[in-house]
């Protein structure tokens, strides 16, 4: 047996041993903490994937990054207000409400800057993101240095901690996410028209600002419900990656939204399971890598938009063009040769010598 075959055999044996040691789905489901992690992240992936499709199609995918960073001061303001009033500052519903309000204000601010100034939308989003995140970091320092009850773990909103998802957190995410999906279904026609043809929507008399506010509010909800579990730094991947993968396989908006939600849910559940199985890795980054693997597979293997198929089509088109040019050149050369062969040679006129004077003619 060659060294290469022995190495492959050893690698397969190690992989088989690792797979044999992974916990079964029944073991994961039987543990309350693991069950909350899987259900919580699946809910986040489903809602963020479905609603993120509109941000993706409107070419404002990074708006989720603005929202997630703006969610930090929103949650901290609510925390400080609740503590000042003697209430529970860690209440998930209150924190999400604060994040939604401030996140919506951040989105409206970015669009207002683009509409009222000469700045482009990417510059406006960068300015709003930095400003709101700066306020959030200032409030985070105040909370960290202050003597506030229940402040432990508040820094998890920066990087997320899926293991802290409780049954109440899951119920809140299901309720808020369900409301956002219901708004999307009720205003489906307005959302679709505003996404694909905003000028026609305005011409038909549609209240475009109201539709935009509703649409971005649902995207805000989809973003902020995952901040505690995933963290504001990685939440943008939940909103952007599933729609980008779904777009490679679909040709209509309903199919894309449905598939993006499914990819977000399945990718989040698989990533959460792998994180639990591996034991020593955080859940959020593993889910992000799982979603990236799905996106990479979609870019390579989708039937109409595959990178490999498009490269093969371009190569075939280039070869066909080269063959056509070669035939044209050869035909031109053949025509030129026939013309040269059919050309009549010019008759030479004999020179007439002038007789010299005195010479006999």
UniProtKB/TrEMBL annotation:
Protein's UniProt keywords contain Transmembrane: yes
UniProt keyword annotations, A-Z: Cell membrane, Membrane, Transmembrane, Transmembrane helix, Transport
Predominant location: membrane
Compositional bias segments (type: Basic and acidic residues): 331-354
GO biological process, one term: response to zinc ion
Chain segments carrying region Disordered: 331-361
Keyword Endoplasmic reticulum belongs to the record: no
Cross-referenced SUPFAM superfamilies: ABC transporter involved in vitamin B12 uptake, BtuC
Subcellular location: Cell membrane
Topological type in the membrane: Multi-pass membrane protein
Pfam families: ABC-3
Transmembrane segments: 36-57, 69-87, 93-113, 125-143, 214-241, 253-276, 282-301
GO CC, alphabetical: ATP-binding cassette (ABC) transporter complex
InterPro entries in UniProt: ABC_BtuC-like, ABC_TroCD
Family: Belongs to the ABC-3 integral membrane protein family.
Protein's UniProt name: Manganese/zinc/iron transport system permease protein
Native source organism of the sequence: Serinibacter salmoneus
